[in-house]
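Lecture 7 notes: from sequence to structure.

We start with a single chain of 116 residues. Read the sequence below before looking at the structure.
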Amino acid sequence: VQLVESGGGSVQTGGSLRLSCTVSGYSFSSGYMAWFRQAPGKEREGLAWIDRVGWTTYIDSVKGRFTLSRDVSKKTLYLQMNNLQPDDTAMYFCAAGKTEPGTYYWGQGTQVTVSS
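Now the structure, written as C-alpha cells:
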C-alpha cells in the first residue's frame, strides 16, 4: 500500500487549500480512509473519515470547513480545507484502514502552515 499526499503549503488566515492523496495497492471498497493531522508537540488527531460506500464523518473542529471526497477512477482522496486558521497548522496525513479496527497504512504527510 502506498499513499502519497500533496497540496500542502502556506496560506493566510481565512485561506483555502486542497490536499490530495494518491492511493496504490489499496481499494476504496476494501475499507475506510481518513485524513489526520499532527501539530508540533501534539498527538496525531483524526479529522475526517470516508467509508466504503462514501459516507463521511468529521470532528467538530473542522465540520463545515473541511470536506473529504474521493475520485475512485483516479484513486485519489481529497481534503478541501476552507477558512483555515492558525490552529490548523500541522502535518497532514492520509490514512487507509487496515483489517484490524483503528490501525492504518500511512502516507508521508504534507505540511500546512496558516499565518495570521
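The mean pLDDT is 96. Keep this in mind for problem set 3.
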